[in-house]
Specification:
Layout lengths: L35 E4 L2 E4 L11 H19 L4 H12 L3 E2 L3 E3 L2 E7 L7 E5 L7 E4 L10 E8 L5 E8 L4 E8 L5 E10 L4 E3 L2 E6 L18 E6 L8 E4 L8 E6 L5 E7 L5 E7 L8 E4 L6 E7 L2 E6 L7 E6 L9 E4 L5 E8 L2 E8 L2 E7 L5 E5 L6 E5 L7 E6 L6 E6 L4 E6 L10 E9 L5 E9 L10 E4 L17 H5 L3 E5 L9 H5 L7 H16 L8 E6 L1 H12 L6 E5 L18 H4 L6 H10 L14 E6 L8 H13 L6 E6 L10 H19 L7
Parallel strand pairs: 34-35, 34-36, 36-37, 37-38, 38-39
Antiparallel strand pairs: 1-2, 3-5, 4-5, 5-6, 6-7, 8-9, 9-10, 10-11, 12-13, 13-14, 14-15, 16-17, 17-18, 18-19, 20-21, 21-22, 22-23, 24-25, 25-26, 26-27, 28-29, 29-30, 30-31, 32-33, 33-35
Helix pairs in contact: 2-10, 5-6
């Protein structure tokens, strides 16, 4: 769940006339085992340990039984078909990414509206006729195979692309001729957290050894990540091992080359908050791989090279990040020089485009962007269309630049940006079937438990009355240096149309205010994150926006942990809880796939007694209390989630059903042929969002009217 392994979920809600939320639910029986672990003298029971085995028939039977109960409940919400119809109408709009120019052509993705996967297109000029370049919808019958990356060889002759199956983090790499689309025989298996970085007639990639026959590819710990070089026309078994570090099997290794293919950069991460950085001079035969930055408490991200300069974004010596420059002849950190110093606002993104640097900053979680020349001198600020989030596309050697601007009511407008003239021209704008001018967004700041001011975005229909009765969808994440900036989702619209408020909190643990803000929500400070989220709900009640039974809290992944912790600490405060693909067992999370990578934010139960006791004090699974009236809860997960394995949600749901006093429904929805969220086909997205929003609206007492 570091930045390159992150996925953040956002959802919404509604409730129906003529359908009582007092459905009677009979839960499947869940067997309890006699498993007990001892941590620093404390015995901890784990009776549902058997649900960790994702290959057993017993687990499969339990999943089927739970899904059957959940399906029956959700189908009992009589407005569900109308909600699905409205969500489908809203999602049926053309979505286009900002183009990137490569080898004289423009590449971009487009989804006609309801296609399961977006299609890659190419056109010969900025406004030319587009033709299909690669259509992932043809890679499977049900849309569950997704493109997960693409890169071109330096001469443009070949294209490597990565695919993910059923939402898994495992990747397969294929190669085709760029011009003809002819697929080559080259096929790479068991790549993970990898791209395909070209040098000459081959590319670098990262992979694990193939799982053993008796192991689980979707839950067992991933160890011994390696970097290989694959030469076109040869089998994977002949690939050259470029880098590994057997002394540290639980770390990630990633390779990238500069556009000129003169430098290879390697980074090692997973042991701390940042990474170690290495490089190799590809112009010299048998040149060594040299470590140039070793303090992995900090991040070092190579933006590219300009001549003999290596441009690097880092937070070492700069909690708000700064851009530094190294010389290819002597690239050790001690010789780096500051190119763009840190400011009071955190750098959120940086790119070299057309020989210049475009730097985006966050000011109270909203984007500001500036253009600098390659000597680090500021030329001008980019005048953005409003308050929101921005992302730039372009290449170091091409002057043409585009950016995508989005907000809570703007669904990703694309602008062509002239860096010299500092002018923006609208290039493409989606047409969503709703009226954005009918809604407004405000940002407020509320005090957390310790007095820290926390930013909160509120989006709602104009004219909303603070009558203490408005339904609220409160979303948060609070971890891994991830910033919660303005974003757009059609899934929220039916909730907003029916008088709801979408609230997005910028909690500590995120990256909105730099590394200090991040660290304030990690390890022995993690409770700050939960306090921040609880305080958001209390603020909304005290400010008369809403009341306790009208608040739904939602979060995914680390945000699922957030929801789980808050609902166990304050079950009285919320009307609905939706923990999605959450980290629920804080004592054992590090024992599955890449869970060990999260220890930099969480710590582990094996570190020491203090860390164990702290994790034990908030672990959602271990803080459920028998005979408690927990809020209506819908836990969501997926069978192919190999990021946060579904066992977290399985065990939590089983324990929640055991402890729930029966006042409210506590269900689990387990998707099939799906993973942590990335690459999920549109058909599955719509079904999932209908179930989530339907459950929320139904249990918040919303009686929806659909346009």
């Amino acid at each position: 769940m570091k930045k390159f392994i992150i996925f953040t979920l956002m959802v919404g809600m509604i409730l129906a006339a003529g359908c009582s939320p007092k459905q009677q639910v009979k839960y499947p029986h869940t067997e309890k085992g006699e498993v007990t672990d001892t941590y620093f003298g404390t015995k901890v029971a784990d009776p549902y340990r058997w649900l960790e085995d994702d290959r057993s028939q017993s687990t499969a039977n339990w999943v089927a039984a739970q899904n059957a109960v959940t399906k029956t409940y959700l189908e009992g919400i009589d407005f569900r078909p109308a909600l699905l119809k409205r969500l489908t109408e809203l999602a049926n709009y053309e979505r286009i990414s900002a183009p990137v120019k490569r080898h004289g052509r423009y590449y971009f993705t487009r989804n006609d509206g309801l296609q399961n996967q977006s299609v890659y297109y190419v056109q010969d000029s900025k406004d030319g006729n587009a033709r299909v370049f690669l259509d992932p919808n043809k890679l499977s019958d049900d849309g569950t195979v997704a493109l997960a990356g693409m890169s071109f060889s330096k001469d443009g002759k070949y294209t490597a692309y990565l695919v993910s199956r059923s939402g898994s983090d495992w990747r397969e790499i294929y190669v085709m001729e760029t011009e003809s689309g002819k697929l080559l025989d080259d096929h790479i298996l068991w790549a993970k957290f990898s791209g395909a970085s070209w040098e000459g007639d081959g590319f670098y990639y990262s992979a694990y050894d193939a799982p053993e026959a008796n192991s689980s590819a979707y839950s067992d710990v991933n160890e011994n990540h390696k970097i290989y070089y694959h030469k076109l026309g040869t089998p994977q078994s002949d690939d050259k091992l470029i880098f590994q570090n057997p002394a540290y099997p639980k770390r990630f290794y990633h390779a990238s080359t500069n556009d000129e293919e003169t430098m290879l950069f390697l980074d090692e991460s997973g042991a701390n908050l940042g990474n170690r950085l290495f490089c190799k001079d590809l112009t010299k035969k048998n040149a060594p791989i040299v470590e140039i930055a070793s303090d992995d408490r900090y991040e070092y991200g190579v933006l590219g090279t300009v001549g003999n300069k290596i441009i690097i974004l880092t937070n070492q010596g700069a909690p708000m990040r700064r851009v530094m420059v190294a010389d290819t002849k002597d690239p050790k950190f001690e010789q780096w020089k500051v190119l763009i110093p840190e400011t009071e606002s955190v750098i959120d993104g940086a790119r070299i485009i057309g020989g210049k640097l475009i730097i985006s900053y966050l000011k109270d979680a909203c984007s500001r962007a500036y253009v600098y020349n390659i000597n680090g001198e500021k030329e001008h600020e980019v005048e953005l269309p409003g308050i929101g989030s921005v992302g730039f596309t372009g290449t170091p050697d091409e002057k043409e630049c585009f950016y995508t601007f989005t907000s809570f009511t703007v669904p990703g407008n694309i602008y062509a940006y002239d860096m010299d003239a500092n002018t923006s021209q609208l290039y493409r704008a989606p047409n969503v079937q709703f009226a954005p001018d009918d809604y407004t967004t405000e940002q407020v700041f509320y005090p957390s438990k310790d007095g820290t001011k926390i930013p909160l975005f509120l989006t709602y229909k104009k004219g909303l009355q603070k009558n203490g009765n408005n339904p609220v969808y409160l979303y948060g994440y609070g971890g891994f240096d991830i910033s919660m900036t303005p974003s757009f989702s059609t899934s929220r619209i039916p909730f907003l149309e029916n008088g709801g408020i979408y609230a997005q909190a910028c909690l500590r643990g995120g990256g909105e205010y730099g590394e200090a803000w991040h660290l304030a929500g990690t390890k022995l400070h993690k409770q700050n994150v939960f306090d921040d989220f609880i305080a958001a709900a209390e603020y909304l009640i005290e400010s008369n926006y809403t009341q306790t039974k009208k608040i739904a809290i939602v979060g995914g992944s680390n945000g699922g942990l957030l929801v789980g912790a808050c609902m166990t600490q304050r079950p009285d405060l919320f009307g609905v809880c939706i923990p999605q693909v959450g980290v629920m067992d804080m004592l054992r999370y590090h024992k599955f796939t890449i869970g060990w990578n999260w220890a930099s934010d969480y710590g582990t139960s094996e570190d020491n007694s203090e860390m164990f006791n702290y994790l034990y004090s908030y672990s959602p699974l271990h803080n459920l209390v028998p005979n408690t009236a927990y809020p209506p809860t819908l836990v969501t997960t997926a069978d192919h989630d190999d990021r946060v394995v579904p066992a977290h949600s399985f065990k939590f749901a089983a324990r929640l059903q055991e402890c729930n006093d029966g006042t409210h429904p506590t269900l689990i929805r387990i998707d099939t042929k799906a993973g942590h969220g990335s690459g999920k086909p549109m058909s599955k997205v719509l079904e999932e969002q209908t179930d989530i929003y339907g459950f929320i609206m139904y249990n918040l007492g919303v009686e929806p009217v659909f346009n």
